[in-house]
Amino acid sequence: MPNKTTVMLDRRHRAGSILLVLFVAGCGSPHTGSSSTKSRFYEQCRDVGTMMERCVTDKEVVLENHKQPASAVEGGHTGLWHNKCSFVCNVHCTDERIGQFMQSFRAELRKAAQQAGAELTVEGEGSAQGSQQLGMFEIEYALGTAHGEVTVNVDAGKAEPDKPGTKVYKLVVKTDEWVH
Known about the structure:
- By secondary structure, the chain is α+β, with helices and mostly antiparallel strands.
- It has one domain (30-179).
- It has helices at residues 40-45, 48-53, 95-115, and strands at residues 4-13, 16-25, 62-64, 71-77, 80-93, 119-127, 134-143, 146-154, 158-159, 167-179.
- The strands form two sheets. Strands 3, 4, 5, 6, 7, 8, 9 and 10 form an eight-stranded antiparallel beta sheet that branches.
- A hairpin with a 6-residue loop joins strand 6 (119-127) and strand 7.
């Protein structure tokens, strides 16, 4: 049975009194704090910076702000839960290396999804603006009662004046998941 709480507040003002009655019924969800509201793959995507580190094989690719946690909005009600997280970091490297990094990162995400037991249902990709390099990709997945998508985008990069040939790329990773 839902939890019912009644709160009454009586405040006096010059113009009279205001009586505020708040009825709260069933606001708590039985899923609060439960691991059944998120898939194992979604939990891994919350720590996407660690996955990115595994894609850096030399000093020609430098990650900036990748150790920060992904920002997340998670919530729902009985029967449907929505989890959404996003992550932004900078990648310092050449045009050629950003393409290699994106290929490696896509492979790392696919591997994590498969290790978590997710079925990859759709995959797509696109080139960066003004480049032949991989600029975005999307992975849709299903895992138990969860289904979701991970979208990865990298911008065209801005030249670093003190490092000829090197650019700073803004990388954005977004994960949306629904659990029934």
